[in-house]
Amino acid sequence: MTVFTGPEAADDGVYRPILRPRRGELAALHHLDAAAARRVTPIIEAAPSERLLPLVRQLPPRTGAIAVDLGAVPDSADRHVSPPLDLAEALAALGVAMLPVLRAYDSRRRLIENGLAARMHLMRAVLRLQPHIDARNAAEATATTDRMLAGAGLEAERVDLLIDLAETACAAHADRFEDRARHVLRWARATPWRSVTVAAGAMPPNLDDLPTDEPVTVGRLDARMWARLCEPGVGYADYGVTSPVRRNGINHRQLPTLRYTAERDWWIYRWARRGGRSDDRCHDLCRTLVQSPHWPAAGARFSWGDAEIARRARSARGGGSPASWMAWSTSHHIAHVLAHLTRL
After folding, report:
1. Each residue's pLDDT tens digit, 232-254
2. Which of 248, 218, 240, 197 is nearest to 334 (CA)?
3. CATH of region 16-342, choose from 1.20.120, 3.20.20, 2.30.30, 1.10.10
4. Residue closest to 119 by CA, chosen among 223, 34, 1
5. Which InterPro entries is this protein grouped with (predicted)?
């Protein structure tokens, strides 16, 4: 049963950020304006320890659909329990369209369930291929993707191909991944995919060693690599303002931190000054940011996150939490990426 309908043609200029199912990221999606929401299809990486549905109920994303990657969620020992189908039914009840994400290591059972979930919603899916892991050459990539499509019972025309290059940790990595991306894109042209997108991420997994009380730059090597590809019709994806290297189960008290996206770099603000109160620290951080050269000309109007940062720059009340800082950073990042894609 199809519960949603959508356009047949490939969407042009759609940004596909790969996000964690956390309050900060969902808040950023919830506060997108209507124009931005039409151009974003987030890919949510679900995990057994992170509950996506309660967050979607509290902060429904304004995007037309969300892609959900259940690759980290194992098949249930109970044959009557299906993570993809259970999630598809629950999201349908909430009025949120779902695109299941196919992975090369999915079991035959999971591929079938993802195909059924796709038919419950938009009759579409995302095929996430990591060429450095899933296929050593073009022939293996063809065999792997053919198996995934057949297992899910979907045609390539209904599937968005996501070529995930994962971590670009240094300039040498970026150069090597750019060459790999060109090879994979040449292979991808032989199949009539609904769309083709290249994803990578360059944010370090740990910012704790960076200096505090001064903005520090981290190179957006992923964005620079995509710009050098100059491939028409190839979409853009990244890991938002987080790292492709997931550090699960690490919890510690964080300093107020913003990961502020600019054209070629992220500006990392980690603030310890102004005594022990987090609100005072956040106020001082935000005040420093809005006075910086990389504060956008549109100021607080640039995104919901920028409006929240500007508000904290005016007052020390309500300094937020790690989830708030991630939400503001992600909101600004999405707006910045969309503005860049519009210029291109």
Report:
1. 889 999 999 999 987 765 555 68
2. 240
3. 3.20.20
4. 1
5. Protein_beta (IPR025683)
